[in-house]
Amino acid sequence: MTVLVTGAAGHIGANLVRTLLQRGEHVRVLVRNTTRALEGLDVERLTGDIRDPDAVKRATAGAEVVYHLAAQISIAGDPHGLVRAVNVDGVRSIAEAALAAGVRRFVHCSSVHAFDLYRPAASGTMVDETSPRVPDEPSHFAYDRSKAAGERVLREVMARGLQAVIVHPSGVIGPYDFGPSRMGRLFLQLYRRSLPSLVDGAFDFVDVRDVVAGILAAHERGGVGENYLLTGHHVHVREVAEVARSITGVRPPRLVSPIWLARLGVPFMGVLGKAMRQEPLYTHESLSVLQTPYRFDRSKAGEALDYAPRPFVDSVRDIYAWFDAAGMLERR
Asked: What kind of architecture, by CATH, is found in domain 2-177+204-233+295-310?
């Protein structure tokens, strides 16, 4: 059986592909250019863009299962239109191709950001799979709008017969973080003591291996047309830093900046990010995420998929172990 993974070179993709190979699956991947996460892996590689109808037609031909992970993540708007193009037009492209190819099962990896997390609410208000999605309006963040719009276009294709299920991870952390991801960069900065301060906020973080387990369970046991929240633990940034200290022995910054003060530094972070040729760690969007009053109810995934995230401390321990094995922890 051939399974197709889009976004295979990303954080979730790198872990999913390895798990599929361990299960003896024939894995085909559709990648654009960055393939470091796939080096040495016995996969069938196709080079192409998720927005290219010909590329996705070749990729889906003969595939029985499609795991659609490809996405353009952004915490700084959509200045070049790529977020919308990949997260909405790309979803339509791969879904149409999968339907035409007779794919038996389509698992779409969305995000908790498809839900409207910035509506007024009391602290601790729960979000579940029935909660309102982000409206497609300019007043909302570009990435959030794109993930909600991507789900809507997918459902248009599902209405014509595509057998799909949708999962929504929260903030993903864990090993095989080749990028590294934004959270991976945070853990490295804590280790290198290059972070000037912490930020007074919190969010839900989930181990990438638990997300992979949820994705595979969604393929095997998820209901067609159903959504499942694949979330982890609500953790304050200060707790993230303390858990990291307990593992590495490196003392975190003593200064904890309130969100309002961190926002004043956003322009500086933007300049620094450009100088370092990478997206800044903090933007108005990422700071808003740390302020959301919502929590996530993952009970549906627990009941239907036997989904149960591991302890947060185990994830952090394994993050540093993998960074060390990958030679990404320089001597201090």
From this structure: 3-Layer(aba) Sandwich (3.40)
